[in-house]
Amino acid sequence: MQQLDALTREAVALAGGGARVIPILSVPEAEVGRQMQICNACRYCEGFCAVFPAMTRRLEFGQADIHYLANLCHNCGACLHACQYAPPHEFAVNVPRAMAEVRGQTYADYAWPPALGRLYQRNGLTLSVALAAGLALFLMLAVALNGTLWGGRLEGNFYRLFPHNLLVGLFAPVFLFVVFALGKGVTRFWRELTPATSGAPLSAPAAAEATQAVLRLKYLDGGHGEGCHDEDDAYTLSRRRFHHFTFYGFLLCFAATSVATLYHYLFGWHAPYDLPSLPKLLGVVGGVSLMIGTAGLWRLNRRRHPLQGDAAQKPMDLGFIALLFLTSASGLGLWLGRGTPALALLLCLHLGAVMALFATLPYGKFAHGIFRTAALLRHAVEKRLPNPVGLGAD
Amino acid sequence: MIDVLVVGGGNAALCAALMAVEAGASVLLVEASPREWRGGNSQHTRNLRCMHDAPQDVLVEAYPEEEYWQDLLKVTGGQTDEHLARIAIRASSSCRDWMRRHGVHFQPPLSGALHVARTNAFFMGGGKALVNAYFRSAERLGVQVRYETPIVAIELDGDRFVAARTASGERIEARSCVLAAGGFESNREWLIEAWGVNARGERPAENFLIRGTRFNEGVLLKAMIDAGADSIGDPTQAHMVAIDARAPLYDGGICTRIDCVSLGVVVNRDAQRFYDEGEDFWPKRYAIWGRLVAQQPGQIGWSIIDRKAIGRFMPPVFPGTVADSLPELARKLGLPEAAFVDTIAAYNAACRVGTFDHTALDDCHTEGLAPAKTHWARPIDAPPFYGYALRPGVTFTYLGLRVNDQAAVHFGGRPSPNLFVAGEMMAGNVLGKGYTAGVGMAIGTAFGRIAGTQAAKAAMKETTHAAA
Q1: Which of B36, B255, B318 has its CB closest to that of A42?
Q2: Is B302 within a domain?
């Protein structure tokens, strides 16, 4: 509270002096501001990632700068392990943690509708309830439509249980809502960041560079290509690799669904598909990749150095990982068990997991990819302009 | 029995341990600090001054041996040993591949340090990343590491190393030993004794801050000198920078420096200027300002700038004292108001402003003012005004043990057959006074590696003797 009071007084004094009003920072934001002041006077970590070069373009850190830098940070841990001011030093610099705390706050602050931002605060509970609701929905529907969860006359065709149009009717509105909600949130984030990052519009080269940074996860490479940190000060590429398995696995699964939709409406080729059809190929490769990726990320997350990142966000991280794993595992299970009496049950499990995953996309860890991409795009714009801070020593 | 005992856990100690283990010796490294504070002053470093005859990865152009040597000669005012200095200089041209093999990454200079793009290779992530890499490599190669194990005494048989004694009384035998336990900068009593009492009756060292590690108490250095090892250097000579007076007592490191000195004026407690703030680029001058402030009453100074300087220097870690008028600034800083206003008025009147350029030795200077300000002299007249209190910040001391080109400790002019020394404990052989960026790491790396090689060789010889 003392910190807040001091900041309030400072803001009032500045406003009274006719300078400008500084938005009052939250405690985690003020902590990032404090640490950036120290880092900006040191700069040893400049080679690791985008955060520090972006920092050197600033002498003061306002709220928008802090939100921007927090989302540029990939929590790779390099600057923590290399820091001469990390705890137990009295400066207690821990950039990955400070950034993570603000990042968690920005997801909630920019969530749409704003009231649902609260779902971030107990994200483990949010995901559990969503999963329970998703499962209950499909289990009850199955019993209502089929009379039983075991056996029945489905003959490997799940549309006999849930007709295509019923599934479209359930999933399409959720999907459209997710796109809309995430779009609203990231648009507001973009508008706040733009004036703080030169105000210049996005150019094609900047967009290309940021896209590459996203698709290659450039900033988990440590700046030297040997990777980032997990349980200690050694570099590892495993976080980057497992992220890639997860991300591209997710995209392949999404592609499988998209191709299947095209097949259905364009060509009238109806599911279920089997190997070697394109939707099945994409789905199986994507599902396996997603399982490998999420299993790896789970293990890495559990082993992560205790100082790195924000422990309060572990339920969100692990919940999202678990839900992705469950979605891919149940999808593959459904395919393998399609000829058995377990088909209805497997189908309910998979659809329930998918529903819970999609419904919580705008209120869970998924947001990190969206907001970080926005920050990387702004960084790619800003870095193309001359540094507004011209130091004499250069 | 272990072959090689390495005392210390910084760059020089790690270089010695790595070379010894690579030579096939069994190595035990004992570090005084707990693991989280390991690395001594190396955790605060950031680059290595490198000789090179042509562009080399992160280094541009060339920095030939002769130029390096002349730079060293200039900063030390001749208080150096040319033979040993040239060994360190030559070693700096070829050690980086070895460093890379042990996990060190180099990068082009950091922003704010482009002036050393030609001469210095920067460690990605700074010295602590380097220390981490060396420790990982050492452990992988089988070096045993013990933390919180300060060595307080060395047991000798004539000029031969026999064993080391830890603070807890444990006796560690080894066939040979490398001492790389740092200077004595965090030993306040020793600093006070060395600096004595000045003409004003003050004990200047009471007001020093220590930029470096809190674990360099010089216990082993003193024990070796008391045991008859030949010493070299003046105990008041040290790497001493003018740093923010609010810096922590220890381990303030790089970020506590105040980089706006050359853009304004510096006054002492009596609000008087005492040195040419614009003598040269700040990075070339900052290592003399610690001593300059140490000679002032109360060992304190204030760097004063106005709005025009903002954004033209590395941002300071703590915000400055801000005021809208000079009298107000004097009151806020606790300086005599009338004298302060007079000093600034006299300076402002003496400024001959030509074309200001903080990136070159420009033509803005003072006339008829003592001391003069020879570059970047512009009147301090644009509010708000800023003041930063300065204190001497000691990075490391130069008093050390005399060595030859094999890094051997000497007793009465004779080299020990199996006791070697590296790093700050012998840097004074090359660096009698003064400093230039990255030379400490160059000396530590060169002589750490020599000491490790020689210690491994000495241990093998001991084994052969024992077998025969």
Answers
A1: B255
A2: yes
Residue of B nearest to A86 (CA): B36
- Count A/B contacts: CB-CB distance under 8 Å: 124
CA distance A362 to chain B (A): 35
Show Cβ contacts of residue B442 under 8 Å, excluding neighbours closer than 6 positions.
B48, B49, B50, B88, B89, B91, B92
Sequence-distant (≥ 6) Cβ neighbours of residue B186 within 8 angstroms: B210, B212, B213, B214, B215, B216, B217, B250
Distance CA A298, CA A21 (A): 43
Pairwise CB contact (< 8 Å): A59 & B112: no
The single-letter DSSP state of residue B51 is -
A106 and A216 part of one domain = no
- Kind plus residue range of the DSSP H or E element containing B394: strand B385-397
Q: From the list A37, A78, A389, which residue is nearest B317 (CB)?
A: A37
Counted domains in chain A: 2
Residue B355 predicted with pLDDT over 50: yes
Whether residues A43 and B110 touch (CB distance < 8 A) is answered with: yes
Show residues of chain B in contact with A387, CB under 8 Å.
Answer: 111
Average pLDDT over residues B217-246: 96
- pLDDT, one tens digit per residue, over B37-64 is 999 999 999 999 999 999 999 999 999 9
**B277 contacts B266 by C-beta, under 8 angstroms:** yes
- Chain B residues whose CB is inside 8 A of the A42 CB are 126, 253-255, 317
If pLDDT is split at 50, 70 and 90, which confidence band does B462 have? confident
Note the pTM of the prediction, 2 decimals.
0.94
Domain interval for residue B434: 2-182+218-236+398-467
- Rounded to an integer, what distance in angstroms lies between the CA atom of residue A253 and that of residue A282? 6
Determine, yes or no, domain membership for A378.
no
Complex-level ipTM beyond the 0.85 threshold: yes
Contact A42 B253 (CB under 8 A): yes
For residues B424 and B352, state if they share a domain. no
Please, what is the average pLDDT of chain B? 96
* Closest CA–CA distance from residue B318 to any residue of chain A (Å): 8
Query: Residue B172 pairs with which residues in a beta bridge?
Result: B164
Kindly list the residues from chain A whose CB atom is less than 8 angstroms away from the CB atom of residue B37: 88
Indicate whether A165 and A92 sit together in one domain. no
Domain that holds residue A274: 121-367
Q: For residue B301, is it within any domain? A: yes
**Residue A393 within a domain:** no
Report d(CA A392, CA A383) in Å as an integer.
Answer: 20
| Confidence band for A1, pLDDT divided at 50, 70 and 90 | very low
Residues in chain A whose Cβ is within 8 Å of chain B: 37-38, 40-48, 53, 56, 59, 78-79, 81-85, 87-91, 223-224, 226, 233-234, 387-394
Nearest CA distance, B47 vs chain A (angstrom)? 10
Is residue A392 situated within a structural domain?
no
Chosen domain end from B361, B393, B425: B393
B311 → closest Cβ in A48, A90, A389: A389
Q: Is residue A9 part of a domain?
A: yes
Average pLDDT over residues B414-426: 98
d(CA A325, CA A333): 12
* CATH number of the structural domain spanning residue B89: 3.50.50.60
